[in-house]
Every structure is written in structure tokens, then in C-alpha cells.
Design brief:
alpha/beta; 8-stranded parallel beta barrel; 11 helices; binds ligand PBG; binds magnesium ion
Length: about 350
């Protein structure tokens, strides 16, 4: 059947243009606006919903007690001492946010070439995991695995002659994952983009009897300008030498993302992630459609900063932009989102649905 103006021509024999009560009414049988005429009607036909179950809340940690420090490039986001992180965990519980992600600001005196603080079983991340789990064992905790918060050069791996070493780095990452898992972390999230790290970490966890610790692989992670504010937050912005393009992906590629994801699944990833988020929604959709795996996206620091900055300038409605940006991930097929907006979103969902 030939289609013209939204309905088959064969069905258009009767003209509706004459005798209608409304002067100048167009001859339209199909009027998509009918389904948008009221809030109840919009709710009935809504295809995607955002709930608190979709949220993972990233927290930045800092040494000390009763300390909260603004991150300048992320208005509304703070670095928290462990006791304060426990308070935020309590808030997350009340808001029914299922999972927290932890990122440390490591004191510069503890950073070195090898990132040795990453494997200290008593480092800031491990302290926070233990403290949160002791008070709130029912909340999920995700720990990032990569060396950049701990290295003096700000790279995610070991360096020799200006090259980021793959296999040597993987050995350290396994030890980092093990101290975090032994501290009680539920999900290990390798964000380093070394080849083969998922398999090595899975093997290390299993050998230590940590069979139930999940792996969420930052499988398709791009070399991105949108990580800038995060590097301020963890204090690696000033120290980072060069860029991360020999290990993080080229932003021009999507087939490559599928190959990366396929490898991580084969190596034992329980969940996969695409990062950054909004500029890579096409990748989220392809990954979800191709692998049907639990698929997450990271709305990264730069995405947060853009919305927060524009809102603070009165250039856009920050709350609405926040909700719209998160719903976009659901539309693209994501099962959940790491977002610095998590507590704000959860509060809004609770009061306004
Ligand atoms: N490997 C570390 C890591 N884990 C998460 C982010 C970025 C998160 C954000 O920007 O919010 C980064 C930064 C980077 O790779 O340089
Ligand atoms: Mg990979």
C-alpha cells in the first residue's frame, strides 16, 4: 500500500474536509499530538523511564576527618573524608540508589612512578569500602581499577621510556583489584584499557575465592576531553604527561568498540560500560543491540560540568537538562548510568516521580 501523509492512500477515498465543525481543519486522520494532550496521556504512551535503580553515584575521597572540599570544576561535587563518605552512603540508602563508585584523591606524597599506593590494602579506597560496608552492608560498592590516582605521572599504567607497558601493568592491576575486593568491594571496574586485564583480574579473584565479586569492564573507553574535571578532582590534571591515546580509544571508532566489548565479555566481564556517555550514545545502542549484556554508560565529569556551568549561568534549566540527559541513556539502551547527578536525580524522582 502506498503511504501518503501517514496513512494508506487506498483508505483516503472519503474526504473529511467538508462539513467539519472546525473551519480550516486539515484533512488529517492521524494527529500524533492527541497522545500528548495531557500529562496522564503522555504517561500512558511513555516508552522509557528513569528510576533510582538506574543510578550509580561516584564519590571522591580525600584523607582526613570531617572534611568536605569543593571540586572547582564540578560545582556541587565535593571530595569527602571517609566519615563523610559514610554519611553519603546513608543518603544513597535512603534514596534507594543501589550502588556507589569510589575514586580517591591521593596525597601527592603518596604518589610514585609505579603507583604503589594502589596496592596498599589500607589505602583510602579500601578504608572507605570497609567503613561503608560496616554501616551499610546492603549498598553496592564499585571500585575503579587503574593506576592514575596513584602515579606521579598521572597515567593509568606503568611507564618505560615514555611507553605505557601493558602486561606489567596488568599484573599490578590484579593486585589492586584484590586489595579492593578483600576490603569488601562488590564490583571491580577496570578503567585502564590495558589488553587482557579482565581475564587476569577474573582469574586472580577466583583463585582468592572471591567468586561472587562482579566485574564491570570499562570496555569501550575513549580518549576524551570530557575527563578534564575528574582529573582536577583526583589531582592528576597537573601531573599528567602527554595524553592517553595509546590505550584509550579513538573517538572516531565504533566497530572497534564492539571488538573491545566482545573481548571483555569473553574474558569474563559481568557488565560492560561505555564512556563518556552523551557524546557516545550511538556506541551504547550498538553495544546493547549486539551483545544484550547489562550495559552501563558513564556520564563523565565534563558532561556534568557543562550542564552545571550553564545552569549556574542561568543559560538553561539545570534540573530539566539533568533529567533529559539521563533519560537519553535509557533511550539508547543503557541499563544504568554512573552520574554525579545521582543524588539530585534520586531526590527529584522521589518528590516529583
Ligand atoms: N582511569 C581513571 C578514570 N576513571 C574514570 C575516569 C573519568 C571519569 C570522569 O571524567 O568523570 C578516569 C579518567 C581518565 O581515564 O583519565
Ligand atoms: Mg580492552
Amino acid at each position: 500500500m502506498a503511504i501518503k501523509y501517514g496513512r494508506p492512500i487506498e483508505l483516503r477515498e472519503v474526504s473529511r474536509g467538508t462539513g467539519t465543525a472546525v473551519p480550516h481543519a486539515l484533512d488529517l486522520t492521524v494527529r500524533p499530538r492527541r497522545n500528548r494532550k495531557a500529562e496522564w496521556a503522555r504517561r500512558m504512551v511513555r516508552e522509557n523511564v528513569l528510576t533510582t535503580d538506574d543510578l550509580i553515584w561516584p564519590l571522591f575521597l580525600i584523607d582526613g576527618h570531617n572534611k568536605r572540599e569543593q571540586v572547582a570544576s564540578m560545582p556541587g561535587v565535593e571530595r569527602l573524608s571517609v566519615d563523610q563518605a559514610v554519611r553519603e552512603a546513608e543518603r544513597a540508602m535512603k534514596l534507594t540508589i543501589p550502588c556507589l563508585a569510589l575514586f580517591p584523591y591521593t596525597d601527592p606524597s603518596l604518589r610514585d612512578e609505579e603507583g604503589s599506593e594502589a596496592t596498599n590494602p589500607d589505602n583510602l579506597v579500601c578504608q572507605a569500602v570497609r567503613a561503608i560496608k560496616q554501616e551499610f552492608p546492603e549498598i553496592g560498592i564499585l571500585c575503579d581499577v587503574a593506576l592514575d590516582p596513584f602515579t606521579s605521572h598521572g597515567h593509568d599504567g606503568l611507564i618505560s621510556d615514555g611507553k605505557i607497558l601493558n602486561d606489567e601493568t596488568v599484573a599490578v592491576l590484579v593486585r589492586q583489584a584484590l586489595v579492593q575486593a578483600e576490603a569488601g568491594c562488590d564490583i571491580i571496574a577496570p578503567s585502564d584499557m590495558m589488553d587482557g586485564r579482565v581475564a587476569a583480574i577474573r582469574e586472580g579473584l577466583d583463585r582468592s575465592g572471591l567468586l561472587d565479586v562482579q566485574i564491570m569492564a570499562y570496555a569501550a573507553k575513549y580518549a576524551s576531553a570530557f575527563y578534564g574535571p575528574f582529573r582536577d578532582a583526583i589531582g592528576s590534571a597537573k601531573t599528567l604527561t602527554g595524553d592517553k591515546r595509546t590505550y584509550q580509544m579513538d573517538s572516531a571508532n565504533t566497530d572497534e568498540a564492539l571488538r573491545e566489548v566482545e573481548l571483555d565479555i569473553a574474558e569474563g566481564a559481568d557488565m560492560v560500560m561505555v564512556k563518556p556517555g552523551m557524546p557516545y550514545l550511538d556506541v551504547v545502542r550498538r553495544v546493547k543491540d549486539t551483545f544484550a549484556m547489562p550495559t552501563f554508560a558513564y556520564q563523565v565529569s565534563g558532561e556534568y560540568a557543562m550542564i552545571a556551568a550553564a545552569a549556574n549561568n542561568g543559560w538553561l534549566d539545570g534540573e530539566r537538562a539533568m533529567m533529559e540527559s539521563l533519560l537519553a541513556f535509557k533511550r539508547a539502551g543503557a541499563d544504568g548510568v554512573l552520574s554525579y547527578f545521582a543524588p539530585k536525580v534520586a531526590e527529584r524522582l522521589r518528590t516529583q516521580g
